[in-house]
Fold:
Amino acid sequence: MTTNKEKIAFMSLPMAELLLRAPFIGEFFDTLGLDLPLGEVSPEEYFTLLDGELLEDLGLERDSLTERFTAFMGLLENLKSGTGEPRIESITIQGGHDKSGRPENFNLTVRPGEVICIVGPTGSGKSRFLADIEWIAQGDTPTGRRVLINNNPPEAAQRFAIDHKLVAQLSQNMNFVMDLTVEEFITMHAESRMVEDVATVTATIIDLANDLAGEKFTPQTPVTALSGGQSRALMIADTSCLSSSPIVLIDEIENAGIDRKRAVHTLVDKRKIVLMATHDPILALMGDRRLVFKNGGISAIIVTSDAERANLTLFEEMDAKLSAVRNALRNGERIGNTA
Amino acid sequence: MKLITVAGPPSSGKTCVTLKAIAALQQEGVQVGVVKFDSLSTQDQALYEKQGLAVTTGLSGNLCPDHFFVSNANDCLAWGLARGFDLLVIESAGLCNRCAPHIQGVQAVCVIDNLSGVDTPKKIGPMLKMADLVVITKGDIVSQAEREVFAYRVRQVNANAVIIQVNGLTGQGGHELGKLLLGAPETTNLEGSLLRFSMPAALCSYCLGQRKIGSDFQMGNVKKMVFG
Structure:
């Protein structure tokens, strides 16, 4: 965090120097509708000299500008230093109770790189579980669960910090509502994360997404023209490289038309905790554990056994066979004898 | 009584989100009342009543809805106190982007939605920039990247607010929002309280019902555009 002394220091530094230190600082003025101060002017001088009528028009108060600027600088620093908070080594969820008040009796600790599957019918409490993690519940949600980060309850500020948001969700029914090309879109995200080399990161993400997607797309493809599979591939690549959230939830990835095993591996490689709502046998066997949801609570936690995993080869053969048939159909061929 | 002002662009989900948050509070036995401000007509009264809430609607008609709100704010508070609510929510009409009903010392909530696009946080004035609590809605229909960029842009214009994502349809996040609303300070009187920011000025011939266009008919507080 910025100390008081530093605060005063950057308020009186000339803009040119501040811009060298933090190129993104220009956005502060831009987002408030103010012109960028000239190089030799300090924020302090700039705020003092701003026209009162202009401020009135913009809905800004002069007195609040210093505070806003300081807060913005804090935000920049937080994002740049990778939050300055200790890294997340583990997330622990302590059971509460289901909808009927029956205790859940579990204590689940997950670590980066783990894959946890979530199974159970619609309405069995999967969303509530995620909401508990998002909120870092402290016995104050309908389930009574508690969530610990690195074995400790969170500090109040952590619960609402956007740069500490715990869960990134890659849901099925996701759309792009922006009319941008893939490249512009990823660039915009990278800029908001203030990464050092925006162009390289953007190119990496687009390559990775193309590896995952069945059909290729270019950096110039509009995001709105991507197929469902391409969109999912792009979001998986994007989330693995750019999202600060340690947990990634993906649901029903089996329907996405992408290389689902590689997609999961991509996230695991980036040390994400992967939560996967799936009933696909191959994906389920990739999971280290399965959380079974029933009546708003977790009724069991099944550790994937070696005996279960022994089926994997068989399932993969079956899957490859079905894929081959699918491809044959796509190419207008007849289905031969596959037995 | 705790008082809360809820503002946000039209159709951003103010009513839905408020209903979900209140539902969680009702389960805990909190007595909640609502005053809904709107311009022409509103079906929201029925929505609130369906949830068993005491609600009063204020229609501003041909007056500026925000000026109408301020003129009635203290009366809203008096109504809430007389009815013995624990918490009173004043939901404003969808306002022009320069306006805000937020009052100093009263918890201020701004509701905006992901669908409005990532440039929207920039375009909204004191309603967003001076809110204590920013509720972002419709996150379920946009991509994770857009959600992150949108929240970041909100953070850029209001670095100190608590930001929370709420789904107005499924209610995800509503319970948590309810908890945050309960943290509002007690308000017993608004006499002499200050708005967080002045409302846009308007006192010209058109305020008084003029319909004719032309320089001869413009009087009072008139501002002219500059063309390049």
Q: What stands out?
A: The beta strands of chain B are 2-7, 32-38, 54-59, 87-91, 107-113, 133-137, 162-165.
